[in-house]
Design brief:
8 helices, elongated, 252 residues, seven-stranded antiparallel beta sheet, three-stranded antiparallel beta sheet, Phosphorylase Kinase, domain 1
Amino acid sequence: MKQSFVKISKITEPPYSDIWVYPKGTRAQIKSRIKELKVLGVESISFQGKLEIGTISILGKGYVGIVVLGKIGRKKVAIKIRRNDSPRKNLKREAGLLKIINKHKIGPKLVASSKNFLVMEYLDGEKIGDWVDGLKKNEKSSQLKLIIKKVLEDCYSLDRIGLDHGELSNLSKHVIVGKKTTIIDFESSSMDRKVSNVTSATQAFCIGSRISKIIGRVYKIPKKQKMITVLRRYKHEGTRESFENLLAVLKL
């Protein structure tokens, strides 16, 4: 399906202009935000995605911002727009965290940022919950294992950095599976609390979640008590050896 892009300077009337100041705002704020985004190099936006606000399709929505598809020249980008009712006064902190994790090749690449916008690499793919829903018994087990291992390796790197994602217990919405597998949505992340990325993601993959039940039909997940034992060891030690032991138990 061909994607239709609209120049941002033309997105000045409802309902489409609502994206700039969601859930509501003034004409002056709309004008100011269009100007702010132009400075970052973004030229156009496409209203598409599986989520909707009113009658408008978007890529994502959280309590801090909404995400839409945009373009800089011919390059597609994901644009996070700070919500007008967000508890955060700006997106500076999240931009700083993305810069840190990008150095370790984790997360979507940050292209540009300002008070109200994050411009990031566009990841063409499915959220892991939707991808797992499409799995059938004995299908794609090798690919599934590679994806789980990639997510856990990134989680281990985050643990080593000292950055806790904060939402990986609900993993299905926070990983994109496409040409590459990428952890997304770092708006709740913190370097001021104890990290639990590996343990949260492993539990989501293997113990009691909706996606773990589907994964269990594709390849054999170790018994719950065995998982708890290796996770406790990793949580206590946090070493590469204890992480490798976890991967071995998972047959990854």
